[in-house]
Specification:
The complex is a heterotrimer of chains A (about 550), B (about 625) and C (about 100). Chain A has about 550 residues and is mainly α. Chain A is built from 20 helices and two strands. Chain B has about 625 residues and is mainly alpha-helical. The termini of chain B are far apart. The chains are: A mainly alpha (about 550), B mainly alpha (about 625), C mainly alpha (about 100).
Amino acid sequence: MSDALVLNLVLWLPVLGMAALLAIPAGRPGTIRSVTFWTMVAQLALAAWLYAQFDPAKAGLQFETRLPWIPAWGVYYQVALDGYNVLLVLLTAFLGPLVVASAFTAITKDVKLFYAMVLAIQFTMVGTFVAQDLFLFYLFWEAMLVPMFLIIGIWGGERRIYATLKFVLYTAFGSILMLAALIYLVVSIQQTTGITTFAFADLYRAKLPVDVQLILLSAFGLSFAIKVPMVPLHTWLPDAHVEAPTAGSVILAGVLLKMGTYGFMKIGFPLFPQATQILAPAIAALAVVSIVYGACLALVQTDVKKIIAYSSISHLGYVMLGLVSFNYLGIQGAVMQMVSHGLVAGGLFLMVGMIYERCHTRDLAAYGGLAKILPMYAVFFVVLSLASVGLPTTSGFTGEFLVLMGWFVSAWPQHVAGNSTPLLLSIAAVSGVILGALYMLWLAQRLLFGAVKAPHQPFADLGGRERAILVAIVAAIFWLGLFPAEPLGKTELAARHYQQLVTAPATKMGSGSFSNPSPLTSAPLEKGTVAKMNLTPL
Amino acid sequence: MKYIALLPLAGFLLNGLLGNRLGNRFVSVVGCGLPLAAFAVALAYFFNLQATGAPTIEVAYTWFVAGTDVLEVSFYFDRLTAVMALIVTGVGSLIHIYSIGYMHADKSYARYFAYLNLFLFFMLLLVLGRSLLVLFVGWEGVGLASYLLIGFWFEDPEKAAAGKKAFITNRIGDAGFLLGMFLLYTALGTLDMDRINAAFMANPAPAVSASLVGILLFIGACGKSAQIPLHVWLPDAMAGPTPVSALIHAATMVTAGVYLVARLSGIYMHAPEASAVVATVGCATAFFAATIAVVQTDIKKVLAYSTVSQLGFMFLALGVGAYGAAIFHLYTHAFFKACLFLGAGSVIHALSGEQDIRKMGGLAKKIPVTFWTFAIATAAIAGIPPLAGFFSKDEILWFALASGKGGSALLFAVAALTALLTAFYMFRLLWLTFLGRSRMSAEVEHHVHESPLSMTGVLVILAGLSTVGGFLSIPHVLEPLLPLPPVAEGMQPFHYAVVGASIAIAAAGLAGAAWFFGNGAVRAERVRQAFPVLNRVLMGKYYVDELYESAIHRPLLWISERVFLGLGDRRLFDGALHGLAALGRGTAAALGRVQTGSLHLYAFLVLAGLAFALYLGLRHV
Amino acid sequence: MDSLQLLGWSAVAIFALGLLGVIIRRNVLVMLMCMELMLNAVNLSLVVFAQRGNPAEASVLVFLVFVVAAAEIAIAIPIVLLLVRHKRSLDLGAYADLRG
């Protein structure tokens, strides 16, 4: 069967799963769980197969399907894999079965609806990543809100209504601006060239005047920045994470947040390169603020989930920093950090969920010395904490190291040339590794070490299902930490493409036109004079 | 070459996963056997190096490709690596064997050996790595192992906190290390240390400031090797089991900083400012730590501060360009400090857990093997010829004075004073612990017993190495790789004077300790009463910990809580959000006031609207 | 002003009176009667215009208005009856349920 068909299957399998669920009566939760789980496993198998088939040497879209949908508007159903989304699709598919498995004992009411919502959100998330048509992308982007709203609102914690409303309204507010900008973009292209198109490949070639770019980037950027989240638009995240059920938090931290950064990488920055270049220092500054601010706030929380929520804000600051470094190392680091954070934060939320199922509290003060009564749990928790901190051999290190090095490599020549702000940002960002260690180890200390203290003892250590979930995540983390060359090889061409697009110099063209693409520079790494020397080993 | 590192890793996995199930004997065999095997492999490479004379480079795999630059996981074996690898595996194996006896009653026996093997794995990565990246992996990894081992008895919150402190202080150093690495990569496009050295030795030198790189990397070294101001974690690290203190905090991990600077000597040779900083910090730390060691009452804490001080000596040597001498001292220090720590462990074991030297004494006859090995090691560290410490310390003192690359009388004076203090407090320790009248409680005294062979055997071996180690004359073995600095003009005649001075210092320390602390330490007590303020400051370790707590830790928490959380998140961001929501609600409420329910009003409004519409429509008719 | 004009203006006046009554009066039945007044005033004005211009169309309209008014009354009175039975009051103030 052709690869394009497999991709469509990967996308639509959750919908088929939902249809299957309709047929199962609500009084058989076991069957519901099995069907959902095996649907997700099938999706993962297909996604993994596509990943293996993905050709790193081929630029552009692979496994493409392009069907006319609303031809009068230039809207096509166009889905494909490219270097931008191949790892993210794999991540989403990987987390799917884990999320479903983690909710087996946690969700007991309205089971059918819950798993239907999980499948729905899986569908919309994969759809957002594989859509190559702006209209389709927007559709999936908005559609994702509905199942998430229900997941948090029905199966969440005490303040779930507040949290879910905040999440939905905040995100939707950004999306409305994005819709207006999107329409403006397409219409203005249509007015100047006569072509109506929503396809990314076409939109990349548009040349818009800088002032228009700035406005549109602000609109798109606002929507994506709310999703990432970037400080100061982040306040929905702690509430949403804390009130969501475990599965919801894992989906949120694991994949949903990546949609914002993916949006920046695929759409926001490449469509408006000159505006990005102008706003890059500000975005970098906000990214560094996110890193430091998120870490500082994580230090003083008392709710375990909030600590991890703020750590997410901190980690995604690294991603944004990498994206605006315009440096190949930084970009690849950002991609790696996206995937790594999905695994690490997802894993940490899963672990919090496991302890919550046993003790029914998230208050850190109620816990202590868990390493004595839950030794296996402690091992996994320490491993995940260290991955969060960025210990070498874990994926967290790969991401953070490449981002920081990439940013520094682009900041140093600017410092030598007189502009020291990027260098200061670099130093501040590196200090983030210290703060990261601070709050994460403090959390581990409070939770695992010291005198034993936990409500509802005695309880069992990790069961087989929980262990399997955590082993899968830890294995993925170490794979990416030790052997990143292969996955990053698949994203290499996309990273170069992105770099080319965003570093494009402004052309003399006035309003938008589809004339020959401007001579794009390939922006190699800047190095000192010694690089020109032939360095032979000693 | 990678098997040198992978063997202990296998030990970690085996012991970690299966150790609890397969029993202590299995754990001991695997836990000690694999490091010994690694030692054998390292030895084989060493002989190979002697035979071929050229360094070996092995590339394991590619970690990341960035256009034409490649970040590889690769290994490098030259003489410096040989010295380090043999020490790490050799002394490491000895300490593993010692641990069999020391930890045999501990219920987490398997976990202990798993962590020790993990440590060896990372330390070997550190010394074998060709690229700064691999070194950094090992660097952080030993920090992890240290964290796990210091907090090994984690049920005690203080011990767990000590582990956390170590990791975080190391991380602060690592931030500087990372910046240094980035700068090197930006300038040279590579992180391979041999190529970096070649680039700096070549003409013209790279465009980047060697001193800046040197200082940044040195910040990392300060964190790992406990120099001022990042030394605060080492004394607290004594919370871990004593063999851990011997291995990690005396012989190997803390020497990683010294190894780093020595390995990148190509940079430091061209960075006079950075070298000056290294020498000054090293010298100051050595003196500072020695003064604190003089008043410590916990046997392990004395040795901890002594380690900080000796590391300071090593950095002093590095700072004046005597890289080989620093490695020499690293080597000999590994022997006698490990011996001292393990001896202390033996004492603690014999006294059923007592660590306060005020409650010891009179042990010489009761635990003779421990006593004699401890005494030999003490004499070695004090610099009594012809033991190992004399040779290495003498080299350092000599170069501190006479090196053409930064040697000065001031450095020499402070270093000599520190050497005097070293001899003094080490003999103080010997006296108070082993000699004189017993100050032990009757209960403890009754149970005093010599340690098992696994422990005493290792002590004897280490004491032997402390005796003959000096004759291995490391600086000259390393000389092709790490040339010793040129002697400053006119200084050569003073060489024998310096040697004589060293011997005199060692003897003075011995005599001083005997005078103050013999006979029940009465004179020492009188001196202590006479200088209460000084005593308090020294016992308070110059209040550095308190300074950090009040100047950094508490303000950070305060800002995070009050400013960021209270003002920022709650009032500003959430406030703006809630304000917008309130605006929406308010507007809706105001507009909703039209809905009075009164049909009269509705009818009136309908008609008024109609009239208005008609007016608008017919205006221009 | 001739008689036709007078009739026309009086139709306007009656319409105005009816409108005022709908807006001001509180009694439901009185409001209904005023609405009838308005309808009949419109009828009257239609008759006047029939005299003036188009007798055919205007007359047909008059009959249309009659039928519509009758139908409307046939529906409105029962509705009002039901409402009054529910609220037990003929005062319009009691029907302010759509508040808010």
